Amino acid sequence: MLExxxxxxxxxxxxxxxxxxxxxxxxxVVSTIAKRAGFNRTTTYSILKSLExxxxxxxxxxxxxxxxxxxxxxxxxxxxxxxxxxxxxxRDGLLALIPKFRTLSEHSFIxxxxxxxxxxxxxxxxxxxxxxxxxxxxxxxxxxxxxxxTGLGDFILDYKNYRIKEKKVPIKAIVPDTLEVRDFVKNNxxxxxxxxxxxxxxxxxxxEMFRNEMNIYDNKVAILHLEKGEEYxxxxxSREIADMQRRIFEMAWKGLEKSVE
Length: 261
Known about the structure:
Elements: H1 2-8, H2 13-25, H3 30-37, H4 41-53, E1 57-62, E2 65-70, H5 74-106, E3 114-119, H6 120-130, E4 138-141, H7 144-149, H8 153-167, E5 171-176, H9 179-188, E6 196-201, E7 212-217, E8 220-225, E9 232-237, H10 239-260
Parallel strand pairs: 4-5, 5-6
Antiparallel strand pairs: 1-2, 3-9, 4-7, 7-8, 8-9
Helix pairs in contact: 1-2, 2-3, 2-4, 3-4
């Protein structure tokens, strides 16, 4: 189980095995570590150097002989924190470069829609964060009840705070009119918040449209399936399709506004 978790945070199978063996035996020379881990000396040395570069293992010389010592398990948290900071840095850089990447295909004679599939909870989260690169209003048929049922209520709350305070992306959301949804909106959104507009669909016969969430932003339409254990997302990148879905959304929005007048 420990090896599996180490691999989840980015260590290879061999790195995980060597680190765990080193924790068991303490500071040792390469030959001893290799014997315990089941690798040859050359391979083990390469693995140890890789772990040392990650700040998980250290080395020292004693009597002219090199020893490797395991870092305290707290160093694993530091390793993950460092990776998070690194990827956040590159993520922000990528967001700034996206327009330049897009210009590479803007001069193509035929612009076919691009479709991408994202699996699991992390795939769904990726598409949610992708929408925060929107250059204008982010339109959404928001399935708040589905987020709650999937166990991601805390994520959607953190996401809301990040969208408003950090990214400053305005949203227009159509949601099903349920007590749970109204309580969430009332307790977590400021009244008359200019960054968030919400309209409710009260007809239960229309709730079927909220089985999947749809987000419309820039030239993308993302569809999120949020059933617990079967989460996935599909994004269609097409200016024509996104514009069409925006017009449909605006018509629905105007209709809901009239119904509450």
